[in-house]
Amino acid sequence: MAGTDQRDNGLGQAQTSAEERLAGEFYDLEFSVQKSRRYHEKLCAFYGVWRDWVKIVSVIVGSGVFILVAAEIKHWAELFAALVAMWAILDFMFSPDKRAEAHRALGERFTELAQKIHRSTRNEQTLGELVACRLEIEKAEPPCKRLVDLQARNEECRSRGFPSASMVPLNTWQRVFGYFATFGMGRLERWKDAQHRQV
Question: Which residues have C-beta within 8 Å of that of residue 149, sequence separation ≥ 6?
Answer without folding.
Answer: 35, 39
